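I hope you will forgive my troubling you with a question about protein structure. I set the record out below, with my sincere thanks for your time.
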Amino acid sequence: MAAALGDPGRLARELRLEAGLKRWEEARNPSSAAAAVMALVGLGAIDILILLPLLTGVVSAIAGLYVAVIAVFISGGGVLVAGPFFDPPGGPLFPILLGLGLMGASVTGAALLTIITIWLVNGLVWFGRLHYRLIKPAILPEPSYSERGLS
């Protein structure tokens, strides 16, 4: 029976992956996304060599863009609050509108980044399920000739 189940470590990683994917589908929040990504990365050593560098670059770029969006939002708030007191050209309404525009643009950017992040996690979930389906036949042993009724 143990031979039929295959490598226990591999089976545990696959079960962890499936649990992480189900958690992401039930509650789409940052912690469930992190659990799904970590379960996917833990699935195989080959995937770590191929997927991890790509995933690290993409996640780093998205995190950098989130930091930039937050900085633009804060600077927009600063322009909105302090701008009218510096007697800008165009009157006090110009910095108020500029600050609101910067804050609105940063909220839009954050929303788009959130959509991209959700697409990324959904793509990783799809990849994990596809990977699991591809390796599942390799886990199940081929029946021997005597089990098939052949001699």
Helices lie at 2-5, 8-26, 30-41, 45-82, 93-139, 145-148. The longest helix spans residues 93-139.
